[in-house]
Amino acid sequence: DxxxxxxxxxxxxxxxxxxxxxxxxxxxxxxxxxxxQTLGQxxxxxxxxxxxxxxEKSRLLSDRFSAERPKGSxxxxxxxxxxxxxxxxxxxxxxxxxxxxxxxxxFGPGTRLTVL
Amino acid sequence: xxxTTQPPSMDCAEGRAxxxxxxxxxxxxNEYVYWYRQIHSQGPQYIIHGLKNNETxxxxxxxxxxxxxxxxxxxxxxxxxxxxxxxxxxFSGGSNYKLTFGKGTLLTVNP
Lengths: 116, 111
Prior knowledge:
The structure holds two protein chains of two kinds.
Chain A: E1 5-7, E2 10-13, E3 19-24, E4 31-37, E5 44-50, E6 53-57, E7 65-68, E8 75-79, E9 88-95, E10 106-107, E11 111-115
Parallel strand pairs in A: 2-11
Antiparallel strand pairs in A: 1-3, 3-8, 4-5, 4-9, 5-6, 7-8, 9-10, 9-11
Chain B: E1 9-13, E2 18-23, E3 32-38, E4 45-50, E5 55-56, E6 61-64, E7 70-75, E8 84-91, E9 105-110
Parallel strand pairs in B: 1-9
Antiparallel strand pairs in B: 2-7, 3-4, 3-8, 5-6, 6-7, 8-9
């Protein structure tokens, strides 16, 4: 399967611990996105990379959150000093640069984080 | 990006057409209408998009009104596997590529 993959699929942690999630995009895609989704809500944008450059960060991404995409390939999202409010599904998506207005993003299955 | 309004839920009988409405009355001329869906416990999936003209692909048809203030996603022969939350998104197509999801419409296809 050559889709977007995310690891782990589920993570349970205690409040105050650090967690790191990984996303492997579709290989030829140069854009990578992170979203967060809480129960009953649509996904909310967190951050966006074009190749290795992080071009936009939502104000939802507090100082405890950091994302990287070294060499423009896989990406990691780290949450430091987790809080119960961080419990959510973290979704990664990727896309390639197409025609103007083209924005088909391919989503991974998500990482479900539970902070106890 | 313009705001969208969708009904929170709809039902459809299996084999019938599902027509999902979306209002986007503040859409501007360079904004596209995108539809994604999210089946339970999966990531969202792209369905279709359009600017002015009606569009059709293997999954669905998109009908955009002439004034572009509303649109309808049509699933011509709904199956049980089409049960999902459907999101209508207006996207400007500029340098900002983030998608702004609302709460969407939960479509339940009944046998």
